[in-house]
Amino acid sequence: MARRPDVDRQRLGRIAEDIAVSFLLSHGLEILLRNFRRRAGELDIIARQRDVLVIVEVRTRSDARFGGAAASVGRSKQQRLLRAAQQLLQQRRDLARLPARFDVIVVHEPTCAGQRVQWIRHAFTARAT
């Protein structure tokens, strides 16, 4: 499906993030922060699921060419997310004591009534490079 011309990329991203937040809330997660921006990168959603810090990257695409939205979280994107998470944990010592995981939420067709949400838990891990 072609993207509607009146929906620009930033607006589409905000719509997808709002859908992801609603989805996470409906699954019992507490949203702590949104759009944590630092020089190292941006974390879309920081949430808590019981005693686990969940750092969520939200992706959306109108079609699955080039591997789809989930495949777009490659090694360089993962490294930026890891650096931003390190900055977050340096600033928020209360969060640093929690075990953390990185999830990806893919919102398919975010501007349609029949959008689908795919939650990829433990999408990647922090590993030494």
Q: Catalogue the unreliable spans.
A: none
Distance between the termini: 39 Å
> What is the CATH architecture term?
3-Layer(aba) Sandwich
**What shape does the CA trace take?**
globular
Approximate helicity band: 25-40%
Total beta strands:
5
Q: Report the major sheet.
A: 5 strands, mixed
The overall average pLDDT, rounded, is 85
What's the tally of helices?
A: 3
Looking at CATH, which topology would you report? Trna Endonuclease, Chain: A, domain 1
In spatial order, strands of the major sheet run: 1-2-3-4-5
Describe the 3D structure.
By secondary structure, the chain is α+β, with helices and mostly antiparallel strands. The protein has one domain: Trna Endonuclease, Chain: A, domain 1, CATH 3.40.1350. Helices cover 30% and strands 36% of the residues. The protein has 3 helices and 5 strands, in the order αβββααββ. A hairpin with a 2-residue loop joins β1 and β2.
Q: Notable features of this structure?
A:
globular; alpha+beta; 129 residues; five-stranded mixed sheet; 5 strands; 3 helices; Trna Endonuclease, Chain: A, domain 1
List strands and helices in order, with pairings.
Elements: H1 9-26, E1 30-38, E2 41-49, E3 52-61, H2 75-91, H3 93-96, E4 100-108, E5 116-124
Parallel strand pairs: 3-4
Antiparallel strand pairs: 1-2, 2-3, 4-5
